[in-house]
Amino acid sequence: MTVAADTGATGPSLSSLLVDATERLGASGVPSPAHDALALLAYALGWDPGECRTAVARGDAIPAGFDAAGWALLVKRRAAREPLQHLLGRAAFRGIELEVGPGVFVPRPETEVVAGATIQAADDYLRERGPCLPVKVVDLCAGSGAIGIAVAMEALGVHVTLVEMSREAFAYLERNVAAQPNGGRRCRRLEPPVRPPWRRTARSRGRDSRPGHRALRARGGWARGSARHRGSSRPPPSPRRHVRHGARRRPGGGRQVHP
Questions:
Q1: What angle do CA 199, 201, 205 make, to 5 degrees?
Q2: Which of helix, strand or coil describes residue 67?
Q3: Which of 47, 64, 123, 146 is positioned for an S-S bond with 51, CB 3.0–4.6 A?
Q4: Which architecture characterizes domain 109-190 according to CATH?
Q5: How far is residue 196's CA from residue 99's CA, in Å, rounded to a whole number?
Q6: Is 205 exposed, middle or buried (0-12, 13-18, 19+ CB in 10 A)?
Q7: From CA 155, how far away is CA 153, in angstroms rounded?
Q8: Do residues 31 and 24 lie in contact, with contact meaning Cβ atoms separated by under 8 Å?
Q9: Helix/strand/coil (H, E, C) string of 146-209?
Q10: Where in the chain is the domain with CATH 3.40.50.150?
């Protein structure tokens, strides 16, 4: 598309790219097409969004060397409802910029509420008990580390442990912690194991490798049904489910199974 720039010159302009992208995203059902189109254009140009907005308002022409094919692909992927943060490679969270991408969830506004509640609870605890001992916070399934990093940065006297099983997500977690001031010295990362800890091997045959299930087995929790799950990577079902169909309770307790 060729439009006239505000300066009086004619030729392809940034405004034409932005208008076209906004229309395409709006037709695809993107909730905020104008915002997303501006963010994508700034990313494609390598500019700050404010700088890009000013250039569009001036009617500046498309700069030389602009990757038109890459721009078209960005708009197409966003129109297919790929998360904007995955396309930009970053997401803002309580004043922290996090690296995100495929394999990790994008922090939501509700996640900021959870982080705020955790920070408030830690502050209240320290105010009541005094800062004699640090408060320990564990962020399970930490993903990008949004909650744990925010708590470590905003709550004083708090040591945070971030746990993530997915190696793909853990890579984002490590980079986000390292990018914080002082390398996130109040954050400790637990790396995912090489294999799930409950996967059975030839060496562990005859015993279950999960500490919690070893305890259950010692108490007779699921010993009778464990043979069915030998060699399986999935945990056995609840002990209460190890009953054949057609079972009924005896009057004096226990169960009676029909032949």
A1: 110
A2: coil
A3: 47
A4: 3-Layer(aba) Sandwich (3.40)
A5: 26
A6: exposed
A7: 6
A8: no
A9: HHHHHHHHHCCCEEEEEECCCHHHHHHHHHHHHCCHHHCCCEEEECCCCCCCCCCCCCCCCCCC
A10: 109-190
Confirm if 235 and 208 have CB atoms less than 8 A apart: no
Beta strand pairing call for 248-249 and 10-11: unpaired
pLDDT in tens, 26-85: 999 999 999 999 999 999 999 999 999 999 999 999 999 999 999 999 999 999 999 999
Whole-structure pTM over 0.70, yes or no? no
Helix (H) or strand (E) holding 15: helix 14-27
Cβ contact 236:222 at 8 Å: yes
Amino acid (one-letter) located at 17: L
- Among 110-124, 144-158, 241-255, whose mean pLDDT is lowest? 241-255
Segment 202-223, tens digit of pLDDT: 454 455 444 444 433 334 433 3
Q: How is residue 72 written in tokens?
A: 């078209």
Instruction: Tell me how far apart the alpha carbons of residues 41 and 47 are, in angstroms, rounded to a whole number.
Output: 8
The closest alpha carbon to 14, from 47, 26, 24, 27, belongs to 47
